[in-house]
Amino acid sequence: FSPFSYGFRPGRSAHQALRQAKRNINEGFQDIIDLDLKSFFDEVNHSLLLKLLKRKVKDPVLLKLIRSFLSSGLLLGGLVSQRDKGTPQGGPLSPLLSNILLDELDKELAQRGHRFIRYADDCSIFLQSKRAAHRVLRSITRFIEEELRLL
Questions:
Q1: What are the residue boundaries of the Reverse transcriptase domain, all occurrences included (predicted)?
Q2: What pLDDT digit, counting tens, does each position of 65-90 carry?
């Protein structure tokens, strides 16, 4: 995972993320885009996540278990409803699965040369002008919608 990803990672903390944010600001990156992926855990696209997992996990039994974890039903009002998107909030695998999906965002930001920090589904991108911030917001929103199938 990216060195600028801080959430749900051993040895990483919110304090470290804040220190990195301060460094970015002190180095002149003072125009900030704050992304909060609303209802992120409820909106995770299963097919995309499983596709990303297949790149990293070669054990078909483990992949099947993860697929079962993702699609496990919800008990609402005495009825079980199947889930076709989202990860179980509070589930033991959900933090890891969220980092696997959002690592794609981290890679995209790094490839574009942006300074950023991400803590779980909250991401801040640091830029040197408002004009750049508006341009990046449009293009990153498009990436999140089209490539990650979120928002």
A1: 1-151
A2: 999 989 886 666 777 767 789 998 78
